[in-house]
Design a protein that fits this description.
It is a single chain. By secondary structure, the protein is an alpha/beta fold. The protein has a single domain, classed as 3-Layer(aba) Sandwich (Rossmann fold). 42% of the residues lie in helices and 16% in strands. The chain is built from 5 helices and 6 strands, in the order E-H-E-H-E-H-E-H-E-H-E. Helix 2 links the parallel strand 2 and strand 3 (57-61). Helix 1 (12-23) runs parallel beside helix 2 (40-53) and helix 3 packs parallel to helix 4. The longest helix has 29 residues, at 104-132.
Amino acid sequence: MPVVLITGAGTGIGNLTARALASAGHTVYASMRDPAGRNAARASELIDTARREGVDLRVVELDVQSQDSADAAVKTVLDEAGQLDVVVQNAGHLVVGYTEAFTAEDIARLFDVNVLGLQRVNRAVLPHMRRRRTGTLLYVAHPRSPAVKADIARRKPRHRPPQPKCCGETQPLIWRFLLLVHFGTAILR
Protein backbone atom coordinates (compact mmCIF):
# COMPACT_ATOMS: atom_id res chain seq x y z
CA MET A 1 0.00 0.00 0.00
CA PRO A 2 1.16 3.55 -0.67
CA VAL A 3 2.93 5.70 1.89
CA VAL A 4 1.14 9.04 2.26
CA LEU A 5 2.26 12.35 3.79
CA ILE A 6 -0.54 14.79 4.62
CA THR A 7 0.25 18.40 5.50
CA GLY A 8 -2.05 20.22 7.90
CA ALA A 9 -3.43 17.03 9.42
CA GLY A 10 -4.01 18.39 12.91
CA THR A 11 -7.62 19.36 12.21
CA GLY A 12 -10.33 19.46 9.58
CA ILE A 13 -10.10 17.75 6.25
CA GLY A 14 -6.42 16.86 6.72
CA ASN A 15 -7.21 15.03 9.96
CA LEU A 16 -10.20 13.23 8.45
CA THR A 17 -8.19 12.30 5.35
CA ALA A 18 -5.40 10.86 7.50
CA ARG A 19 -7.86 8.70 9.42
CA ALA A 20 -9.70 7.56 6.27
CA LEU A 21 -6.53 6.64 4.37
CA ALA A 22 -5.06 4.80 7.37
CA SER A 23 -8.33 2.88 7.79
CA ALA A 24 -8.10 1.92 4.11
CA GLY A 25 -4.70 0.30 4.77
CA HIS A 26 -2.25 3.02 3.74
CA THR A 27 0.76 4.04 5.80
CA VAL A 28 -0.09 7.64 6.70
CA TYR A 29 2.15 10.35 8.07
CA ALA A 30 -0.13 13.04 9.50
CA SER A 31 1.91 16.21 9.73
CA MET A 32 1.31 19.23 11.89
CA ARG A 33 3.21 22.03 13.57
CA ASP A 34 4.56 21.43 17.07
CA PRO A 35 3.05 17.97 17.82
CA ALA A 36 4.96 17.82 21.12
CA GLY A 37 3.73 21.26 22.24
CA ARG A 38 0.64 23.20 21.26
CA ASN A 39 -0.70 20.34 19.08
CA ALA A 40 0.18 17.56 21.54
CA ALA A 41 -3.49 16.71 22.20
CA ARG A 42 -4.22 16.44 18.46
CA ALA A 43 -1.12 14.31 17.86
CA SER A 44 -1.97 12.08 20.81
CA GLU A 45 -5.51 11.62 19.51
CA LEU A 46 -4.20 10.39 16.14
CA ILE A 47 -1.68 8.06 17.80
CA ASP A 48 -4.43 6.68 20.08
CA THR A 49 -6.64 6.12 17.03
CA ALA A 50 -3.83 4.20 15.33
CA ARG A 51 -3.37 1.93 18.37
CA ARG A 52 -7.10 1.42 18.93
CA GLU A 53 -7.87 0.65 15.28
CA GLY A 54 -4.63 -1.17 14.47
CA VAL A 55 -3.77 1.12 11.56
CA ASP A 56 -0.46 2.58 10.42
CA LEU A 57 -1.07 6.24 11.25
CA ARG A 58 1.95 8.21 12.40
CA VAL A 59 2.49 11.83 13.36
CA VAL A 60 5.38 13.86 11.99
CA GLU A 61 6.28 17.48 12.66
CA LEU A 62 6.08 19.71 9.61
CA ASP A 63 5.72 23.48 9.48
CA VAL A 64 5.21 24.52 5.84
CA GLN A 65 6.70 27.92 6.67
CA SER A 66 10.12 26.32 7.13
CA GLN A 67 12.19 24.55 4.45
CA ASP A 68 14.23 22.84 7.18
CA SER A 69 11.02 21.48 8.70
CA ALA A 70 9.72 20.22 5.33
CA ASP A 71 13.08 18.57 4.59
CA ALA A 72 13.18 16.94 8.04
CA ALA A 73 9.62 15.62 7.74
CA VAL A 74 10.27 14.05 4.33
CA LYS A 75 13.56 12.59 5.62
CA THR A 76 11.68 11.04 8.56
CA VAL A 77 9.14 9.44 6.22
CA LEU A 78 11.87 8.10 3.92
CA ASP A 79 14.02 6.83 6.80
CA GLU A 80 11.08 5.02 8.42
CA ALA A 81 9.04 3.84 5.42
CA GLY A 82 11.68 3.75 2.68
CA GLN A 83 9.44 5.52 0.17
CA LEU A 84 6.89 8.27 -0.22
CA ASP A 85 4.17 7.69 -2.80
CA VAL A 86 1.58 10.39 -2.17
CA VAL A 87 1.71 13.93 -0.78
CA VAL A 88 -1.57 15.57 0.15
CA GLN A 89 -0.88 19.30 0.34
CA ASN A 90 -3.63 20.34 2.73
CA ALA A 91 -1.95 22.89 5.03
CA GLY A 92 -3.24 26.38 4.50
CA HIS A 93 -5.09 29.38 5.82
CA LEU A 94 -8.26 30.97 4.57
CA VAL A 95 -9.23 34.54 5.29
CA VAL A 96 -12.61 35.97 4.49
CA GLY A 97 -13.48 39.63 4.60
CA TYR A 98 -13.15 42.92 2.84
CA THR A 99 -9.88 43.17 0.97
CA GLU A 100 -9.04 46.54 2.48
CA ALA A 101 -9.32 45.07 5.99
CA PHE A 102 -6.14 43.05 5.50
CA THR A 103 -2.70 44.60 5.82
CA ALA A 104 0.09 43.79 3.42
CA GLU A 105 1.66 41.79 6.26
CA ASP A 106 -1.54 39.72 6.63
CA ILE A 107 -1.48 38.90 2.92
CA ALA A 108 2.27 38.13 3.06
CA ARG A 109 1.67 35.60 5.88
CA LEU A 110 -1.19 34.05 3.92
CA PHE A 111 0.98 33.84 0.79
CA ASP A 112 3.84 32.31 2.81
CA VAL A 113 1.63 29.45 4.02
CA ASN A 114 -0.61 28.90 1.01
CA VAL A 115 1.88 29.36 -1.82
CA LEU A 116 5.44 29.22 -0.55
CA GLY A 117 4.50 26.39 1.84
CA LEU A 118 3.48 24.25 -1.12
CA GLN A 119 6.79 24.97 -2.82
CA ARG A 120 8.78 24.09 0.30
CA VAL A 121 7.11 20.69 0.53
CA ASN A 122 7.48 20.16 -3.23
CA ARG A 123 11.22 20.94 -2.96
CA ALA A 124 11.54 18.34 -0.22
CA VAL A 125 9.58 15.56 -1.93
CA LEU A 126 10.08 15.94 -5.68
CA PRO A 127 13.74 14.78 -5.78
CA HIS A 128 12.62 11.47 -4.22
CA MET A 129 9.70 11.11 -6.64
CA ARG A 130 11.95 12.01 -9.56
CA ARG A 131 14.47 9.30 -8.56
CA ARG A 132 11.65 6.73 -8.29
CA ARG A 133 9.97 8.12 -11.43
CA THR A 134 6.60 7.90 -9.72
CA GLY A 135 4.41 9.65 -7.18
CA THR A 136 1.21 11.57 -6.62
CA LEU A 137 0.76 15.19 -5.59
CA LEU A 138 -2.70 16.15 -4.40
CA TYR A 139 -3.58 19.76 -3.58
CA VAL A 140 -6.55 20.58 -1.37
CA ALA A 141 -8.09 24.02 -1.78
CA HIS A 142 -11.18 25.80 -0.52
CA PRO A 143 -13.61 27.13 -3.13
CA ARG A 144 -13.29 30.60 -1.59
CA SER A 145 -9.62 30.63 -2.45
CA PRO A 146 -9.13 33.41 -5.01
CA ALA A 147 -7.06 31.18 -7.30
CA VAL A 148 -9.67 28.42 -7.27
CA LYS A 149 -12.57 30.83 -7.79
CA ALA A 150 -10.84 32.40 -10.79
CA ASP A 151 -10.03 29.03 -12.34
CA ILE A 152 -13.57 27.70 -11.81
CA ALA A 153 -15.07 30.86 -13.31
CA ARG A 154 -12.76 30.63 -16.30
CA ARG A 155 -13.65 26.98 -16.95
CA LYS A 156 -17.35 27.08 -16.14
CA PRO A 157 -18.56 27.54 -19.73
CA ARG A 158 -16.70 24.39 -20.74
CA HIS A 159 -17.75 22.44 -17.61
CA ARG A 160 -14.20 21.27 -16.98
CA PRO A 161 -12.81 20.77 -13.48
CA PRO A 162 -10.14 23.16 -12.25
CA GLN A 163 -6.59 21.97 -12.88
CA PRO A 164 -3.41 23.34 -11.37
CA LYS A 165 -0.51 24.31 -13.56
CA CYS A 166 2.71 22.42 -12.94
CA CYS A 167 6.23 22.69 -14.19
CA GLY A 168 6.52 20.61 -17.35
CA GLU A 169 9.48 18.59 -16.09
CA THR A 170 7.39 16.90 -13.38
CA GLN A 171 4.57 15.75 -15.64
CA PRO A 172 6.27 12.59 -16.96
CA LEU A 173 7.34 11.68 -13.41
CA ILE A 174 4.06 12.01 -11.54
CA TRP A 175 1.21 9.52 -11.73
CA ARG A 176 -1.41 12.09 -10.93
CA PHE A 177 -1.39 15.79 -10.24
CA LEU A 178 -4.77 16.66 -8.77
CA LEU A 179 -6.58 19.57 -7.23
CA LEU A 180 -9.32 18.71 -4.77
CA VAL A 181 -11.68 21.57 -4.08
CA HIS A 182 -13.56 20.85 -0.88
CA PHE A 183 -16.75 22.46 0.26
CA GLY A 184 -16.45 21.26 3.84
CA THR A 185 -15.19 18.27 5.77
CA ALA A 186 -18.39 16.31 5.08
CA ILE A 187 -16.91 14.87 1.86
CA LEU A 188 -15.22 12.10 3.84
CA ARG A 189 -18.25 11.14 5.90
